[in-house]
């Protein structure tokens, strides 16, 4: 929708016509579901309504806080209504189980009832991180390998690599004026053919080119990606050294719909104003949004 607004603004620069406010009603709003079930955690979902892009309504005012949200463990027959927490959020009490079928249903007197169903993913464990480096100072390059056992079915993953860095700042006489440690996610490249796209500091991959057995994903980044260039608090400094002292890898095994959802958002980033918009993937009946499943495994080195 941003593309249409941009085009309208460009045309306005070359027109002397009177601006006329759109008076139509647009499409009727639908319920929007944002629900990612994480294995071992209690469910937390958000319900809102769709907003027509030419209306005067604000997306920030779209939350629905008086809906009935029912979650059912189809395999066991257990069902319960999630408790409302305000601002469109609803919370459950029972931890989500892996490899289990769940169904969610959201009803509200002003909207059509929406629903979705899935089988939660299996737990996939990130079990090893190893690292190496070459070069010194600004020419230094870092190499990190993450290993896990891919399950014998079609899987979709997201991997985030973070580095713990020690920063030291010096004055003109090379006296230390400030030092700290922090976690950051450097922009790490990879030649792994299974990586499909990147989004929000995560590399998304699937096991189409492999299936089962030990999978190693390798990343590489350089020293320049570690510098933040600021210490805050008005501290004056002339030199900075940064050293990697640790790593953390986070592996998320996710449902196919969840993977397609993030890929459609990444494809719809609006990088060029005249490109065709991409529909965001949804698996919600009679509404919009995502009902997804994920397992998370983290490991530090």
Average residue pLDDT: 84
Largest sheet: 10 strands, mixed
Number of helices: 2
| Class by alpha and beta content | mainly beta
Q: Give helix % range.
A: under 10%
Radius of gyration: 24 Å
Query: Terminal Cα separation, in Å?
Result: 43 Å
How much beta, percentage-wise?
over 45%
Estimate the global geometry from the Cα principal axes.
globular
Order of helices and strands: HEEEEEEEEEEEEEEEEHE
Q: What is the total tally of β strands?
A: 17
Describe the protein's topology.
Layout: H1 2-12, E1 31-38, E2 44-49, E3 68-73, E4 78-81, E5 83-86, E6 89-91, E7 101-108, E8 111-119, E9 126-134, E10 141-150, E11 156-170, E12 176-184, E13 195-199, E14 202-206, E15 213-222, E16 239-254, H2 256-267, E17 288-300
Describe this structure in words.
- This protein has 301 residues and is mainly beta.
- The protein contains two helices and 17 strands.
- It has helices at residues 2-12, 256-267; strands at residues 31-38, 44-49, 68-73, 78-81, 83-86, 89-91, 101-108, 111-119, 126-134, 141-150, 156-170, 176-184, 195-199, 202-206, 213-222, 239-254, 288-300.
- Strands 1, 2, 5, 6, 11, 12, 13, 14, 16 and 17 form a ten-stranded mixed β-sheet that branches. Strands 4-3-7-8 form a four-stranded antiparallel β-sheet, with no helix packed on it.
- The longest helix is centred in the C-terminal third of the chain and has 12 residues, at 256-267.
- The radius of gyration is 24 Å and the shape is globular.
